[in-house]
Structure formats: structure tokens, C-alpha cells
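Ticket closed. Logging final result for Cell division ATP-binding protein FtsE.
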Amino acid sequence: MIEMKNVVKKYPNSVVAVKGLNIQIKQGEFVYIVGPSGAGKSTFIKMMYREEKATSGEIKVNGTDLTTLKDREIPFLRRNMGVVFQDFKLLPRKNVYENIAFALEVIEKDPEEIKKRVMDVLKLVGLTKKVKMFPDELSGGEQQRVAIARSIVNSPKVVIADEPTGNLDPETSWEIMRLFDEINARGTTIIMATHNKDIVNTMRKRVIAIENGQIVRDERGGDYGYEF
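Final structure:
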């Protein structure tokens, strides 16, 4: 699903964010990305959906080489990916239904298919009674559920999540993680950057630890491994 070979990312200010990354992530895996702040986790995540472009090396996602991908081709890449952020990034003037449907409207899906898919994912995330509500009328956990529904409405092969529980209380965080676990059980690859030690230590998935832009640990069924 995802392969990186000798990937380096240098920013214009001469900061080297990642240094010679080599990694393979298979279809259906659930992977946590952990490490100290400033270690390169966000850059690692962003390169997977071409928010950031590698300076050198090779990145392939589902067979597509991201290092040679033209900017105009990026939207097509992201049709097979879902991305979930810490701050939700919902459209404030669209209600729950419209926020999720928008992801399908931009690729010109049939209105009846859009309706079916949106209602299916709303049922999965437990928000069928909130379809007409706007983001500012929802709790943080509910907003994240909408964001997750939006990320999976197009049946992506991989969902990339950057600190998806970072703004949520512990109980809500566990509800969100159970949802991610169910999505993964349906065959979707999940890659998640997180600082949540309890979740990583309890759920015991594959753990990739990054420090100073390098992978220092890659362990299946691993723990968080840091004390802050």
C-alpha cells in the first residue's frame, strides 16, 4: 500500500525533517506513528498524501509514485485516500450531511449514490440524527465523527490521521479509536500519528517511532515507548 525508499525532506530554511526513510506498509495494516514533538512525524504523514513533497527518494502509494506526481494529479491521488485532522477542518456553513456529501460531489457522483453513501457512513459513525446540524452545534467528538465519515465516504484504501484525538477528552478519544478499529476491520489501512500513550499501549498495533527524522523502532504489537 505504501512504500518509502531513502526518502529525504529538506525545507527551505535548511531544516532536514526526515533523513533516509525506508518503510513498507501493507494493505489492511493499522500503524501508529509516534515520537517526540518536532521528530518529523507530521512531515512523514503529509508526504503520504502529497501535502509535502519529498526532496529525494521514492514514495509509492497504491502503486503511484508521489515523487514524480504532477500537482494537477494530486486530487486524483487523494480520491483513494481519507485524511483526518486534529482540528476537524469541517466546512462551517455546511451541515453534517453537506460536509460529507461534498467529498463525493466534487468527483461528480450520482445524487442517489451520494445519498446512500452518506447515510451509510453516518450510520457507521452514529450520527444519523444529526444530519441537519452545523459544526458549531456539535461537540468535539461529534465533529471528529463527521470528519471520519467524510474521510471514508469514498471507500478509500487508506485513511491517514494526524493526531485525531488530540483535542478530545479521554472517553471521547476511546469512542473515536473504536470507530477507527472498526473501519480497519473492514479492510481499510489506518496510519495514525499520535501522542496518546494509553491508546497505543492498550490497542497494540504496529508502532513506528520517529526521532530526529529517522525511524528508530518498527514493532508489531508495540507500545508507545516514551515518557514525557
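The chain has a mean pLDDT of 91. No further action required.
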